[in-house]
Amino acid sequence: MFHKHPGSATITPSGVKPDSRAEFSGTAEAMPYPNIYETRSRLNKLNAVCFLLLAALVSSAQTSKPGSEEARQVLALENAWNQAEVKADASGLNLLLGDEFVYTDVDGSFKNRAQWLADVQKEVLRYEQLGNQDQAVHIYGNAAVVTGIYRERVHLKGKSVVRRGRFTDTWVKQNGAWKCMASQATLVAP
After folding, report:
1. Closest alpha carbon to 94 in 66, 113, 75
2. Which fold has domain 69-188?
3. Grouped pLDDT means (10 residues each) for the chain, 190 residues
4. What does the H/E/C string look like for 100-114?
5. Do residues 102 and 120 lie in contact, with contact meaning Cβ atoms separated by under 8 Å?
6. In the chain, where are the structural domains located?
7. Kind of pairing, strands 97-104 and 15-18?
8. Which of 64, 104, 155, 189 could form a disulfide linkage to 184, CB 3.0–4.6 angstroms apart?
């Protein structure tokens, strides 16, 4: 440990240098002070890199305007999905799904394309009504993410039940056609 009198050091652009008059006790020859100019320079460079990365991310992830043609196409497919699901039309839904489609259901179960289409065809849930609201479409090049709220009236265990939930669907444009690659649903209070 060392002690010095107040004002017994000089700050220079290359760092802090103790005056020759400083009195130190112990074996320490000088306290290692960080070079504040070097530290500021590093922080400025780090800030510049972070800013450039953020700018690159923002420019590559522009969301579509609400009325864009791409957004309208994807929303039309979301509506077609609902109509096909109400009719238990697995072949119609099959046309909307990508080969690697995955579904996370309201209970957390995970299904691949074949499993989910089999459930639709077996009418595990028999729909009376299914509709979306408050949908938002975000286009990222050849990908689109749709979020929204759905309301459904289904026959569940012999009873007609109204349920409401939030959903996230991920679409990818392949060979000029939008295909849903992932869908996730979460129940919320009606």
Report:
1. 113
2. Nuclear Transport Factor 2; Chain: A, (3.10.450)
3. 47 54 48 58 52 42 62 96 92 95 94 93 83 95 96 88 95 96 93
4. EEEEECCCCCEEEHH
5. no
6. 9-60, 69-188
7. unpaired
8. 104
